[in-house]
Design a protein that fits this description.
single chain; 88 residues; mainly alpha; 52% helix; actin filament binding; Alpha-catenin/vinculin-like_sf; beta-catenin binding
């Protein structure tokens, strides 16, 4: 239990360090200008949303075996054949 707690604490500290480094890099890139006097920063950051990932992975292999699959090809039945089923 102690080793798991220490791993979680180390991971949180590492993530905080990464976040602070990214913030400092972003601030530095917006403040630092090139010698040519351009108003644009040398480094431009294009931020995007992270991909959404499920919190719990579901084993889909067992579910597909238990499902019944529908046929994609529909069989056309003639009315005469349907009526013959009732007469016999």
């Amino acid at each position: 239990l102690d080793s798991a707690t220490s791993l979680i604490t180390a991971a949180k500290n590492l993530m905080n360090a990464v976040v602070l480094t990214v913030k400092a890099s972003y601030i530095a890139s917006t403040k630092y200008r090139s010698k040519a006097g351009n108003k644009e920063p040398i480094v431009q950051w294009k931020m995007r949303l992270p991909e959404k990932k499920p919190l719990v992975f579901v084993d889909r292999q067992n579910e597909t075996n238990s499902r019944t699959k529908k046929s994609t090809v529909k069989k056309r039945l003639e009315p005469i054949h349907l009526l013959n089923e009732f007469h016999n």
